[in-house]
Amino acid sequence: MAISATVIRAKISIADMTRHYYQDHHLTLAQHPSENENRLMIRLLAFAINAQEDLQFTKGLSTSDEPEIWLKDLTDTIELWIELGLPDESRLKKAANRSKHSILYCYDEKSFDPWFKKMESKLPKKKMDIFKINDEDAKNLESLYARALDLQINIDESEIMITDNNTHKTINISVVKVN
Q1: Using CA atoms, how far apart are residues 80 and 154, in angstroms rounded to an integer?
Q2: How far is Cα of residue 119 from the mean position of the Cα atoms in its chain?
Q3: Beta bridge partners of 56
Q4: Residue 52: CB partners within 8 Å, gap ≥ 6?
Q5: Degrees to nearest 5, angle at CA 143 with 26 and 162
Q6: How far is residue 85 from each of residues 15, 44, 67, 114, 130, measured CA to CA in Å?
Q7: Tens digits of residue pLDDT in 137-154
Q8: What is the pLDDT of residues 50-99, one digit of tens each?
Q9: Pairwise CA distance, residues 41 & 142, whole Å
Q10: What is the pLDDT of residues 106-135, one digit of tens each?
Q11: Are 32 and 39 in contact (CB under 8 A)?
Q12: Nearest CA to 36 among 128, 89, 136, 107?
């Protein structure tokens, strides 16, 4: 018998002072059986950082033809492709070729440097921004995990403050490459 996805309900109130975006989002996320809590929370964070009206989660891990999150226009053109982790070269090329812009959020510090050394010359030269979340911040984010989330997310440049009813966490995103 196959293990089914876990349904996560999230209410996130975003105050992004950098982009002047202030909005509440009521989201339903499917946590794939192979997706750990850390990765799901990073996926939610990536959504919050890039939030806009038509931004959507995709099937994610269950399909190789879609990113984790995307923004499509009315003609079905992919405006924004958001990827997580340390993907292979073909995945990065697909992101750059199929979208107008792509963003990669990397995590797992000990694997990042060898991956980046190997991939740096193969990275798309245009249309891709790369950011890194350090292990301590990823663990702080994971500590907020629950099947029903109610989060206030304040974004100011690369510093993100996330608050639930009991805790307050600060997450910093490092810029690796921006086009």
Answers
A1: 22
A2: 20
A3: 70
A4: 21, 71
A5: 50
A6: 25, 14, 11, 13, 10
A7: 999 999 999 999 999 999
A8: 999 999 999 766 567 899 999 999 999 999 999 999 999 999 999 999 99
A9: 6
A10: 999 899 999 999 998 888 878 899 999 999
A11: no
A12: 107
Whether 159 and 133 have beta carbons less than 8 Å apart is answered as no
Identify the structural domains of the chain with CATH numbers, from first to last.
Answer: 6-177 (3.10.640.10)
**Which residue type is seen at 21?**
Y
H-helix or E-strand containing 173? strand 168-177
One-letter amino acid for residue 166 of the chain:
N
Task: List, as one string, the DSSP characters of 38-104.
Answer: HHHHHHHHHHHHH--TTEEE--GGG-SSS-SEEEE-TT--EEEEEEES---HHHHHHHHHHEEEEEE
